Amino acid sequence: WVFSGGQPHTALVVGDGLNISAYESLVPAHADAIGVLVRSNTKKDHPEIFWMDDEDLDELYEDVVDNLQHSLREPKLDARLRGELENCVKAMRERGDAYCR
Question: Global pTM?
C-alpha cells in the first residue's frame, strides 16, 4: 500500500501474517501528491493541530527539491518519469509557499 503524506500514516495488513508499518512524508512522484504536500500548514487544507514545525517543513521541502533536481539531472531517466517529475516541479512553484517558488 502507498499513501501520500496527506493520508493516514499507518497501515495494517492482515493475511497469512500480521504486518504493521508506519512512515512519515512519503510523497509519490505526481503533481497532485506534491500539491497536497505544499498545502501543509495552511488553514484551508490542513488543520492547525496537525501542522509541522516550520523549520521541519522547510527542511522537508528542501529535501524534495534536492531529490527532484538530482533525479532530473539523470541522463538515462525514463521520459514518462521525467515528465511526471517536471510536473512536480511546476506544482511546487505554482501551488507552494514562498520557499517552493
Answer: 0.69
